[in-house]
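Example 3.2
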Amino acid sequence: MEEVLEILQGIKPDVDFAEEKALIDDGILDSFDIISIVNGLNDAFDIEITVAELLPEHFNDAEAIWRLVQDMKENG
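Structure, written as tokens:
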């Protein structure tokens, strides 16, 4: 989880990702941010997040992003 938070902070250092629960719903992250996050996650965790996983509920908070990473690591 710490590595996910570091990736997020690298993209938007002014956001408190540990507390924020509506990153997509509140427009905190835009499509360019999501692309950067996906690239960072793919590299850091050796996974391949596909278009099918690019759903708002997977990116609305750090915990959801962490669950996505865990799922991708377990199920590919």
